[in-house]
Structures are given as structure tokens and as C-alpha cells.
Amino acid sequence: MPPVKAVAPLGLFLILRAFSSGCSAMTGIEAIANGVKVFREPSEVNARATMAAMGVILSLMFIGISLLTWMYGVDPSSGQTSLAILGERIFGVHNPLYPFLQLVTLLILMLAANTAFADFPRLGALLAVDGHLPRLLAFRGDRLVFQNGILVLIALAGLIIMFCGGDTTMAINLYAIGVFLAFSLSQAGMVRYWLRNKGPMWAQRALMNGFGALFTSLVLLVIIVSKFSYGAWLVVFLIPLLVLGLGWIRRRYRLLEHALDIAGLPDAAGAAASSGPILPPLDPGCGPILLCLESFDRAAVAAISQALSMSRHVRVLFVYGEHHDPARIQADWDRLFAGQQGLRLNLSSSPYASFIDPLVSMVQAVELEEPDQRLTVMMPEVVGNRWFDRYLLNQSIDVVSSALSDGRSRLFTRYRHYLPV
Fold first, then answer.
1. Whole-angstrom Cα distance, residue 33 to residue 395?
2. 180 with 23: CB under 8 angstroms?
3. What is the band of 244 on the pLDDT scale with cuts at 50, 70, 90?
4. Which of 58, 190, 219, 316 has a CB 3.0–4.6 Å from the CB of 209, allowing a cystine?
5. Interior/surface letters 120-149, b for 16+ CB within 10 angstroms, e for the rest
6. What's the CA gap between 28 and 35, in Å, rounded?
């Protein structure tokens, strides 16, 4: 082969740039780190085994392809991938194995693209449960996927494709910056964790995470410097805005939660002894009412009061998931509504917090018990003073209304609770 003229001197920066480009191939391991909860128990052991197997497969593929490209003298080309050139020289263009190699490569890339659609909705749900993103991202549909997160990712992916003009090199640079920033922050966070909590072999583990934070930060810096003019400036600009947005959403949720907190409400005995009960007297009014709750707060208490003013038979359904505390919900219920006639609480467990199936089952049960009565399904709706509060609250009302839209013997009512914030 004739010698290839170098376009840049073999210096430290070029080596670090090549190192950062190679590390971009390892970004898929974050999907395992964020998805530990979905592994079969023991989840930590299975996740570590999966990550180890992934590292071995990645290393073997990288070393094998590198050796083959060196043996066959494959040079980078702007019009054809190195793997395609390698397959052409090994098999030949007319060999059936050559298109088979291209097909397998396409399937692998499709599977790699699917990683984001499996991982981002889960990560968005974790942030939503913590209050840093709108809670609609934590809604798990009846197909047991975070469907709203998938829709958001589809929209974001479309915008990125339009911005990059279909250039995969630019898109990979944008992806690598975000990933290695997350790697650096997580490794630094683990160092802080070991320094604060100690534990067995904490010094060795802190040292290992410290080396990880150092090298991932170095890779991040190299990618930013070398790819800044190729689209990296967008991520550098957007990430601080994203962090500020997450913090603002969390502060807004805290303000809304403080306004909805039931800690200041008097209990049933205290209210009756002082200024009277917090609930109105029973009214035979309409037929049975089924009140569906997704949180137990002042809006829920006000909705219960409204329901009792309309009917003598009010059932409250609360479907709780892993982020709820059923013992605390029951204790608050006993404190506020102990001895209240015509009122019944049904706590239903759902490991995925999908309340549609339990709600429909209870609707059918109530209609069988009282077939001559018309059932009303009620759900509280919190209304804030800010226009964007609609995206932070009440994401389940439309889902419930749609699920019950085919019924003839039931009504769906929204009870609106207005907040002063």
C-alpha cells in the first residue's frame, strides 16, 4: 500500500480525540445502569452480569474489526463505511454473505436506536416521580410502557434529525456529549457517596469511581473542544437551560404540594367538637358515586365533600403503586373520615400504578350491586393560576374519561379545585 499522508500531527490531542471517539461506542451501558429495576431479582447481580457480558462482546468486536481492517488495509471513506469495505474485500460484492453483512449491520443499528426508546421513557419517569419533570411522563399505560415518554422522544428525535440534516456524525457528537456528561456527574456523585457513607472497601471504590470521573470528564472536554463547531455548541447551550428548567419544575411542584397538603386539616373528632365536621350532612340526592383519586390531598378532601353532598353512597378508589405509602394513606383517611356514614375507601394495589383496570372492575361491580341506580364517576381536577400548571397536574382525567366513554349507565364528572398559587 502507498503511504497515506497525515492531515494532522500525531500529538496528545489527536490521541485523546481518537480515544473519545472510541468511547462513544460504549454509551449503551447507560441503558443498563438506568434499567436495573426491570431486571429479574436479584436485579443488581443480573445487571452486573449483563454489563460484563456487554463489555466483553464490545471489546471482542472492536478488537476483531480493528485487526481485520489493518490486515486488509481498509482506509476510512466518506462514501462507504469501513465495515462495508471490509466485507467487500473479504467476501466480494457478488457473494451472498456481503448483503447479509449489510443486513445484519442494519438490524444492529436499529436495535441500538431502540435503546433510547427503551431507556429515555424510564429515565423520564424517574425524574417525573421526583418532581423534576411533568408527572404525565410517569404514566404507565395498559401496555406497561411509559407511552408519553415515547411520544416526547419521537418529537425530540425528529427535531434533532431536522437540525442535523440527517448527518449521523453530528448526531453522534450531540449524543456523546450528553452521555459523557451524565457519566462524569454519576461517577463524581459516587465518589461523594463513598466519602460520606463509607462502608466496606469504600476507599478502593471511591478511587475507582474517581478514576472513572477523571477519564469521562477528559473525554467530555475533548469532544466539546474538537466538535464544538460541528454542532456540539447546541448541547453546551441547552444543557444548562435544561437543568434550570428541571429545577424550576421541582420548585413549582413543591409550591403546589404545599398548597394541597392536608396536614393542617382538622381530624374528624376535632372538627366535630369545634366548628362542625369538614363534611356536609348526607343528601340522598343521586345514585352511587365512585370517586377516583390519584393523590390524597386537599383537592381529594374537597371532592369527597362534594360527593357526599350529592349521594349517600360514595366509594373512593385509590390505586397505589410503588411510590405510594398505603399505610400513610389509610392513617390520613382514618384521621379525617373516621365514622363517616355512606363513605367507603378502597385501596387497590397495582405494581405498575395502572388504575384503568381496577377502576373499570369497580365500576362494573358497583353497577352489578345497584343495577337500578345510575353511577357517577367523579375525579378531582386541580386548577392553578399559571397556564403551565395544566401540564404539571391532572394528567389522568382524560385517560379515565376515555376509558369510561363507552358506558351508558354512568356519568363522568370533573370536580375542580382552585389553588391560590
1. 28
2. yes
3. very high
4. 190
5. bbbbbbbbbbebbbbbbbbbbeeeeebbbb
6. 12
Give the DSSP H/E element, type plus range, for residue 310: none
pLDDT-derived band at 100 (thresholds 50, 70, 90) equals very high
Grid cell locating 420: 391560590
C-alpha cell read off for 326: 398505603
CA distance 352 to 22: 38
Distance, in Å, from the CA atom of 88 to the CA atom of 101, rounded to the nearest integer, reads: 10
What distance in Å separates the CA atoms of residue 41 and residue 254, rounded to the nearest whole number? 34
The one-letter amino acid code at 31 reads A
Q: E strand or H helix at 348, and its extent?
A: strand 343-349
Looking at 3.40.720, 2.30.30, 3.40.1130, 3.40.50, the CATH number of the domain 268-418 comes to 3.40.50
pLDDT score for 232: 73
CA distances from 67 to 10, 53, 70, 71, 141 (A): 20, 21, 5, 6, 47
* Single-letter amino acid, residue 68: L
pTM of the model: 0.68
Residue 275: the pLDDT is 47
| 34 closest CA partner among 166, 186, 242 | 186
Q: What is the 3-state secondary structure (H, E, C) of 174-217?
A: HHHHHHHHHHHHHHHHHHHHHHHHCCCCHHHHHHHHHHHHHHHH
**Where are the chain's structural domains?**
268-418
